[in-house]
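Let us work through a complete example step by step.
Step 1: write down the sequence.
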Amino acid sequence: MISGLGADERVFQNLEFPPGYESHFLPWIKPLSHDEPIEEYALRMARRILHPNPVMLGLSFGGMMSIEIARQLPVEKVILLSSIKHKGELPPYYNKLAKRLLKNLPDRLVFGQRQFIVRLFMQTSTDQERQLLQDYLYSQNKDHFYMRWALNNVLSWQNEWVPPSLVHIHGSSDRPFPRRFVQPTHTILKGGHFMVMNRAKEINRILERELL
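Step 2: predict the structure and record it as tokens.
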């Protein structure tokens, strides 16, 4: 399992898998440089996978990274949660202007007031979810290097390859990746970007059908 931008394994705590599956969290690693290619980063992450033919499950940017890993490592299946599978599903307003602003603006302007935007996009609904989000915001205050690298790769992702065995679960009310631009295999009605936490029961039913 790979979480979204710099988040930890707690976002997956409500997920359940069928008997016989052993779950492992693959943490993010530090980019070697501000322009390390996503393909090379994915290869370094893949070296930490010890089991053959794993099922990759990725949330948001973690879904994009799961696909990048699947391009370089034999996998049984790729499961995307609140993510996209190729560049055609990126919203058109994630354009050159956004990338230019990210490249040229200082950290204090890019990250200093991002709390409102992150809370708006994540669509949390409980105190537990809001605490996870607060912890995430606090941790990312210390690592703008990683965040710039990750955001740049989200905005400029050029992937056109889709794994042959792919499950794509998406919320109809997702804000970072609006449903109108995405063609998932499963849609959670009124699910937001944080549905991995607050709509886990429905996601678990899909996982049971797809993994048995």
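Step 3: interpret the result. The radius of gyration is 16 Å.
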